[in-house]
């Protein structure tokens, strides 16, 4: 194990402006250097230097489209590390003289539903996960992995995903079929991996969830509320909506 490399990566993530830029990419989008500079409250020139270091270290991936250059998280592994750091951060004891934090509507929206890289987090993500577990559609294998079962097909079909969807979630590739991801606001698990990404993508494509600008929060549309309530059941849906 190269401890110097670990320290190097930790140092890159630990710089406040770089941390802010990395967190801004946690919703799975690709953003420009200008947008990331705004997220880090730094100049475009300073952001360019920071982004170059993050790309070089393999934390970000640079994508070019015509004259435009976009940055996104390099992999789901990077997102998982960041989510873990966020969970550790909220567990730290409060400072001796904490500033008063005003919790506004934006915070409430994040707690209801948000993106965690490419899957759903918040109360909605936890409710989906508990439904899949209760229906036997998947099972978690400890804290790091999981597997999709044969029961996944009929459960996902009731959400409007075809029968091949469960095979896609259990297909080949390095990414886990499904895995637990500790939700920093709910302190319970939501589902990540291929299955989590598939469900999130489906809900977005159906218009049940809408991305909100400048935030990871997801808006649940009226049609989405009906579809998800019918799938999850009234009692579990109440855990999402009745707050």
**Major β-sheet, in short?**
2 strands, antiparallel
Number of strands: 10
Structural class: alpha+beta
Q: Count the helices. How many?
A: 12
Widest sheet: strand ordering: 1-2
Average pLDDT confidence is 85
Strand content: 15-25%
Q: What sort of overall outline do the alpha carbons produce when their principal axes are compared?
A: globular
Low-pLDDT residue spans = 97-106
Distance between the termini: 46 Å
- Helical fraction: 40-55%
Radius of gyration: 19 Å
Oligomer: single chain
Element-level helix/strand string: HHHHEEHHEEHEEHHEEHEEHH
| Total number of distinct structural domains | 2
Describe the structure.
It is a single chain. The chain is of the alpha+beta class and 243 residues long. The protein has 2 domains: 68 residues, Arc Repressor Mutant, subunit A (Orthogonal Bundle); 137 residues, no CATH class. 50% of the residues lie in helices and 16% in strands. It is built from 12 helices and 10 strands. The strands form 5 sheets. It has a two-stranded antiparallel ribbon with strand order 1-2. It has a two-stranded antiparallel sheet with strand order 3-4. The chain has a two-stranded antiparallel sheet with strand order 5-6. The longest helix has 16 residues. The protein is globular, with a radius of gyration of 19 Å.
């Amino acid at each position: 194990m190269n401890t110097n490399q670990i320290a190097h990566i930790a140092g890159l993530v630990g710089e406040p402006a770089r941390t802010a830029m990395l967190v801004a990419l946690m919703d799975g989008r690709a953003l420009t250097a200008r947008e990331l500079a705004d997220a880090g409250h730094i100049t475009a020139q300073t952001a360019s230097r920071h982004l170059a270091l993050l790309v070089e270290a393999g934390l970000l991936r640079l994508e070019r489209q015509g004259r435009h250059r976009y940055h996104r998280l390099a992999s789901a592994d990077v997102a998982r590390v960041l989510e873990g750091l966020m969970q550790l951060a909220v567990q730290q004891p409060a400072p001796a003289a904490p500033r008063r934090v005003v919790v506004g509507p934006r915070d409430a929206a994040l707690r209801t539903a948000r993106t965690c890289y490419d899957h759903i987090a918040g109360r909605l993500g936890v409710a989906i996960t508990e439904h899949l577990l209760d229906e036997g559609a998947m099972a978690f294998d400890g804290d790091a992995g999981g597997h999709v079962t044969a029961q996944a097909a009929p459960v996902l079909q009731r959400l409007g995903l075809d029968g091949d969807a469960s095979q896609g979630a259990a297909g080949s590739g390095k990414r886990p079929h499904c895995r637990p991801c500790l939700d920093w606001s709910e302190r319970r698990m939501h589902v990540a991996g291929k299955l989590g990404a598939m469900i999130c993508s489906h809900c977005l494509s159906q218009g049940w969830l809408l991305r909100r600008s400048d935030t990871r929060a997801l808006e649940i549309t009226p049609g989405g509320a009906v579809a998800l309530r019918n799938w999850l059941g009234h009692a579990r849906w109440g855990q999402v909506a009745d707050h």
